[in-house]
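Sequence in, structure out. Go.
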Amino acid sequence: MTKKPEASKLESSDAVALLGALAQPTRLEIFRLLMRYWPHGLPAGDIGRLLAVAHNTLSSHLGALEQVGLLASRREGRHIIFAAQAPRADALLAFLSDACCTEGAVPCTSETAAFPARREYVASDHPLRVLVVCTGNSARSIMAEAVLNGERSTKL
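Output:
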């Protein structure tokens, strides 16, 4: 197995691979479950039972997560124990939040992480123009136009 980069040295391609592995719902649930049991891990059979995943499906998901370094496995007797690799997850979080901590950037805090206040709407002299295109049923475009004409004075 190849050596995984440290948190500060995670490359963009590595981050894409990690996010790609976690983009599948079952793999995300597997990783979240194993983070709860970090650092000890769980046997593959227990993971399958807890998440109601078939053995063959579970095996491919565990392999995908292990390939990108989010999981590690070890043999204990007849069982294979899978454990989350928290340093690898930390590396991904550090990579994603790296832009927050550069000089001149606003630091990432709970106060700045929320959505900013909504921008004030500035009405222009030009009215908004809307094009409604409907396929398959020409009555829809007529109905949409009627709705827009009725709402125009208040919302558009």
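Check: Residues 7-92 form a domain with the Arc Repressor Mutant, subunit A fold (CATH 1.10.10.10). The chain has a mean pLDDT of 80.
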